[in-house]
Amino acid sequence: MGSDARPGGFDCLEELVRHKGCVVKDGGFATQLEKHGALLNDPLWSALCLITNPGLIAKVHWEYLESGAEVLVTSSYQATLQGFQSRGISLEESEALLRKSVTLACEARDRFWRTKRAQGAERFNRPLVAASIGSYGAFLADGSEYSGDYGPGMTLKKLKDFHRRRLQILSSCGPDLLAIETIPSKLEAQAFIELLGEEDIDVPAWIAFSSKDGKNVVSGDNFSESIAMLDKCDKVVAVGINCCPPHFVEGLIHEARKATSKTIVVYPNSGEQYDPKTKLWKVQERNCEKDFMAFVKNWKRAGANVIGGCCRTTPDTVRGICSAIF
């Protein structure tokens, strides 16, 4: 996986967790793209930059590496063959864009790793690249990943048909991990579990659910039962919580730990509130960055093994996480 030899590095997430106890993931990708002027009010969201500005994607990966991230997540969360083709992009070009998302992250990571080795940073761990795979709702770009409500006609088969080719492509082009994230329901998680087996995917995966009440995944499915389902899949090496308010995370970690001994990955939003109808974040009077950092040590104590940020978090958030847990 990846391209550079890794003397002193680790081949997989579990090895890195065993070595360090807690690993730092990067933060919000679209947030940082927008800080650099990217206009992402588009159904492709951050994946638009794979077409319009891949150099900016590489820059953001580098910024997260410099801030201390040990796991980079690719810019493919909202990148789908169906989404690209709806823009008139050919199937061949669409598949190439998916591959590009992994290549950009791996190239940034490898360049950063070579720089660290040249500087004699013997204790520095080679970062891992996780290929992001968002939910069906992310493709719809209508906020349904925050409810899991895909309409009465949605079936397990339809979800598998939608995700299959993207999963094949992203797993075949060199990532260390698959980050299957912001999953709103047991049904969609089951689709991925079956696909990982049917396609004999040999890249380890994490699956992360979101929650809007701190007890259930956003569809209303019981969170503990959802984690227990993931625990039975050998191809899922880690389970997670992402894209939710930070004050829900500690309780969800405790629930997850009751249901699994797998690695637990957590990366909530900043604490600001998102309106899926207007596609805008509501400005908060309180200091969300300070509030977020107040939780980090508790997440580690509760059993989180990988900690990062999702929407509205930044390289400064990652630096703060590093300071809190090391």
Strand content: 5-15%
Instruction: Give the N-terminus to C-terminus distance in angstroms.
Output: 27 Å
Largest sheet: 8 strands, parallel
Shape: globular
CATH domain fold name: TIM Barrel
CATH superfamily: Homocysteine-binding-like domain
Domain count, please report it. Answer: 1
Query: What are the segments in which pLDDT stays under 50 over at least 5 consecutive residues?
Result: 1-9
- What is the helix content? 40-55%
From the helix content, strand content and strand pairing, which structural class follows?
Answer: alpha/beta
Mean pLDDT: 92
Count the strands?
10
Query: What is the CA-atom radius of gyration, in angstroms?
Result: 18 Å
Q: What is the CATH C level class, in words?
A: Alpha Beta
H/E element sequence: HEHHHEHHEHHEHEHEHEEEHEH
Number of helical segments with 4 or more residues: 13
Assigned CATH architecture: Alpha-Beta Barrel
Strand order of the largest sheet: 1-10-7-6-5-4-3-2
Short descriptors:
TIM Barrel, single chain, alpha/beta, 13% strand, eight-stranded parallel β-sheet, two-stranded antiparallel ribbon, 326 residues, disordered N terminus, 13 helices, globular, 45% helix
Care to describe what's here?
GO terms for molecular function: metal ion binding; methyltransferase activity. Zn(2+) binds at residues 243, 310-311. With 326 residues, the protein is α/β, with parallel strands linked by helices. It has one domain: Alpha-Beta Barrel (TIM Barrel), CATH 3.20.20. The protein is 45% helix and 13% strand. It contains 13 helices and 10 strands. The protein has helices at residues 13-20, 29-35, 48-52, 54-67, 81-85, 91-118, 136-140, 156-171, 186-198, 223-231, 249-259, 288-302, 315-325; strands at residues 23-24, 71-73, 128-133, 177-183, 205-209, 236-242, 263-267, 273-275, 280-282, 306-307. It has an 8-stranded parallel β-sheet with strand order 1-10-7-6-5-4-3-2. The protein has a two-stranded antiparallel sheet with strand order 8-9. Helix 4 packs parallel to helix 6 (91-118) and helix 11 runs parallel beside helix 12 (288-302). The radius of gyration is 18 Å and the shape is globular. The two termini are 27 Å apart. The model is unreliable at 1-9 (pLDDT under 50).
